[in-house]
Task: structure prediction
Amino acid sequence: MNCRGYVWVSFFCVILMLCPLTGRAEAAEDSKEQNTVSADIDVLEPEIQALKEEIVELNTLLFKLQEDLLFPEDSSVVVFLSVEGDHYFQLDSVKLTLNDQMVASYLYTDREKKALKKGGIQRLYIGNVRSGEHHLVAIFNGEGPQQVDYKRAETFSFKKEKGPVFIKLIVRDHLEMKRVEFAYETWN
Result:
């Protein structure tokens, strides 16, 4: 090998020996940058959390504003449904008409039926009506005793005055009479 060959071999050996050192230097610089970034994140963490809380608060205010605009308190009516017992009737679906206009129709899954049986209350409808007398018709479909299809329509009348009206439709077992009972409660 001539002198030039030794120079090149020596040059490559030096480079190969320095590579791990430069990698360590770069790793040290990366570590310093990560520590700096980590420190910056730690400084920003309370600010980020405060921004998250502000966003949640703004979202809540926007939701309330939307509800107030769509359903003004003076004209709003809200209809809920609850199920108390399932010995004489197992609810499958419900249709709701308000003043001869269909406003809600709901088909229940097994999971939703279980939730209602455990005391859950479902909001069936929220809307606006004028002051005065109103008629609400609920058509309940389900399974009666001995797995027989059962369909029942119930008419409920209510008077709308100033302020919101809340109506709770109740499907419950009447144990003394051994049948299902459909009732409702209203409150302002």
Summary: Strands lie at 76-84, 90-98, 101-107, 121-128, 132-143, 149-160, 165-174, 179-187. The longest strand covers residues 132-143. The domain at 76-187 is CATH 2.60.40 (Immunoglobulin-like). The chain is about 40% helix and 40% strand.
